[in-house]
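Input record (one chain):
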Amino acid sequence: MKNAILAIAAVMVISISANAQTRTPASDQVSSFGVRGGVNFFNWGGDDASGNDYTNRAGFHAGIYGNMFVTDRFAIEPGAYYSVKGTQADNAVDSRSILNYVDVPILLRFYATDGLNIFAGPQGSILLNSKFEGDAFGQTWTVDTDDINDLDAGLVFGIGYNLPMGLNLQGSYDLGLTPVFKNSDAEVYNRGFKISLGFSL
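The corresponding structure, as predicted from the sequence alone:
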């Protein structure tokens, strides 16, 4: 029994040492700057007293990020992205909202391995413009609106993987915490998934 315990302990020490050697010390990690973009699938979550049935609407995002290691496994990653959000309603005119933002997340990224990482952090979003569209009588009708809140605060969390040649792939979820509308009975929030491909320069 004693020999078995010693053998298990030895294997654990060797495994931990080998795993530690796969990571570069924080002092030797190179902070990176990169570009990232991908597809959005956004909807409105919350309570809409009007009873609209919202569905996901596809959009896109693109922008820049910086990655700075603070330990050998943790990095802080600020970014700035142009992001198209909104939703689509299942009604007679196939109405949809198109909301264009600049997202500014500040993420804390934990590297479980050299490739696999998880991340989370706050995000502030600045509304650039917004409009509503609908299809009727063979035409698409567009209405600009100023009823949307200019600022949106939320949380971002997800999982990523570093690929060869500086590429990285990630999936994330945006949890909006600020109501979309300034004054409305509809307490709805921007909620959605993002799939992103990045390249560290």
